[in-house]
Amino acid sequence: MIFFWAFVVGGIICVIGQLMFDVFKLSPAHTLTILVVFGAILDGLGLYEPLIDFAGAGATVPITSFGNALVHGALQEADKHGIIGVVTGMFEVTSAGISAAIIFGVIGSLLFKPKG
Amino acid sequence: MNMTFFQKFFLFFSLAIVCAGCGTDETMESQSSLDINPLSAKPSLFDQSPSNMAKESLMEYEEITGIKAVNSDKEMIIAVQIKHMKRFFMAKHRKAWQKEMEKQFPGWKVELSTDRKIYLELDKLEEKINKDTLSKDELKKEMKHIIKLSKEQT
Amino acid sequence: MADEKKKKLPPKAQAYQALQDKKEEKRPIVKNCMMAFLVGGTICFIGQIIMTFYIHFFPFTEQTAGNPTTATLIFLTMLATGFGYYDRLGQFAGAGSAVPVTGFGNAVISAAIEHRTEGYIIGVGTNMFKVAGPVIVYGVFSAFIVALIKTILTQWGGM
Predict the structure, then answer these.
(1) A contact residues 48-77, partner C, Cβ 8 Å cutoff
(2) Cβ neighbours, 10 Å, residue A76
(3) Residue A17: what are its φ and ψ, rounded to 5°?
(4) Cβ contact, residue pair B149, C56, below 8 Å
(5) How many Å lie between the alpha carbon of A24 and the closest alpha carbon of chain C?
(6) What does the alpha-carbon distance between residue C74 and residue C105 come to, in Å, rounded to a whole number?
(7) Of A71, A79, A100, C135, which residue is 20 to 30 A from C98 by alpha carbon distance?
(8) Kind of pairing between the strands at B109-113 and B64-71
(9) Residue B25 and residue A1: Cβ atoms within 8 Å?
(10) Residue A10: which of C43, C81, C82 has the nearest Cβ?
(11) pLDDT tens per residue across span B122-153
């Protein structure tokens, strides 16, 4: 069941991105940035975690989950250490996406040749 | 419509997934059997009737499709699986059920989880108890390990 | 907003703009959305398979399995990008390949590969963040604002 909903919810988030491309004529950088902010806002409203419970990878794989993870880290740290935690706790919960992208980016540039 | 091989492949694959999803929907609804088994531990181990009582109480909730529970002399771990469509409100249910179990077993340390991994681990532990392959210390160690797992954040 | 800009142009330029709008290729929005849905959904489906694999065979819980799943997906993206498949996917999938975290990985990795001729420090190091940069900057900043607001509200609510 979760596989079905992962497919559907992931697809829907991508359709939202596609509408940003086609209807609002935004670039990929703009679209991804807006989606990350969107994910952060949804987590602030307490809606993103239930979405993850329901759709699994359909909510954790799209870039929106990055915004969610940042807010989560910030809130957790703020819980423990007060309002300064909002600044210090951001990357506590998430670094997998960024670290992996950087690491495999460098490895990729070592292994692969650019195409014409 | 002219489609490349890639596009045709994706279309077919996605239709297959959708059909699979619709299929499981029906079978899940008709399945009324709960995945719970009352434990019977040998006297050399901790008496599992508190866990069995917890299972009885939680069985009342129609969202629940499976319960696994194990206890030592002062700790109890309960793992619950719920119907998929109700998962959106899983966090709310988990908090409510945790409170209820704490009220039902005052003085005990109760951990209730809805995580699939905890459910799988407790299932394995229940089997070991039923087969009587554990000592008291080993049971406590396993429980400690599972509780630690359930607390991990990243 | 774009219309206001157009109205400020002299009449000949306005006429040209109108002609350009007419000749501009209309985007097949419905078809694009369909492909985005299918491809994006499939990538998330694959992600779910990987996540379930990690939960069943490794000591990861539903909470913690997201990280290795992301890392694995980006590793696969590196292979797909390096061999040129991800770009082909992007041509018909649009947002379906850009929005999942694999799209983020592809943006970083393909920039790294493309600019390696300019040297590793400058070429690879600076260009990797052309798309990733805004995402991280505004992700962090918006998370800061959201978390700040929420923390202040809960503290006021508590008092």
Answers:
(1) 56-58, 60-63, 65-67, 70-71, 73-75
(2) 17
(3) -65, -40
(4) no
(5) 11
(6) 6
(7) A71
(8) unpaired
(9) yes
(10) C43
(11) 999 888 888 878 888 888 888 899 999 888 87
Provide the token pair at B98: 């945790």
Q: Which residues of B touch A4 (CB under 8 A)?
A: 17-18, 20-22, 24-25
Residue of B nearest to C34 (CA): B11
* Shortest alpha-carbon distance between residue C89 and chain A (Å): 14
Contact at CB, B17 and A4, closer than 8 angstroms: yes
Assessment of whether the complete model's pTM goes beyond 0.90: no
How would you class C26 by CB atoms within 10 Å of its CB: exposed for 0-12, middle for 13-18, buried for 19 or more? exposed
Residue C145 CB neighbour total at 10 angstroms:
16
Q: Alpha helices of B31-89 — where are they, by DSSP H?
A: 49-59
Structure tokens at A82: 């007060």
Torsion sign across C-alpha atoms A44, A46, A47, A48: positive
Q: What is the CA radius of gyration of chain C?
A: 22
Q: What is the pLDDT along chain C (159 residues), one digit of tens a residue?
A: 556 555 666 778 777 877 777 666 667 888 889 999 999 999 999 999 999 999 999 999 998 999 999 999 999 999 999 998 899 999 888 899 999 999 999 999 999 998 888 888 888 888 889 888 999 999 999 999 999 999 988 888 765
Please report the ipTM that was assigned to this predicted complex: 0.91
d(CA A24, CA A65): 22
How far is it, in rounded angstroms, from Cα B135 to Cα C13? 87
